[in-house]
Amino acid sequence: MRRGWNPMNDYLFKFVFGREERKRITLSFLNAVLGLEGADELQDITFIDRDMEPQFSEDKLSRLDLYGIASDGSRINIEVQLVNWGDMEKRTLYYWAK
Asked: What is the number of structural domains in the chain?
C-alpha cells in the first residue's frame, strides 16, 4: 500500500475488496476476521449491488460498502466507519430489515 493512502478510505476499500478480480483478497480478509479455518473457510463470494432502493417515499437510498453472499449462503455486509457515531447497532438493524 502506498505511503499516505488510508485503507479505510471508502473508495480505496471498495477498490481493494469489492471487485470480482480481487475476490481472493476479500475471502482471505473475511476468513481471517471471522476466524474461519480449514473446512469452515468461505470458498467463494458473489458480490451484490450495494444500492438499496427506498421502499417508501420518506425512505432514503442506502449504499452499502460491500455486500455479498458467501459460499455457505450467509449474507455479508461490510461497512467501513472512520468515525464511531455510536449507532452501528441501529444502522445494522436498519440495513438488515431492508
From this structure: 1
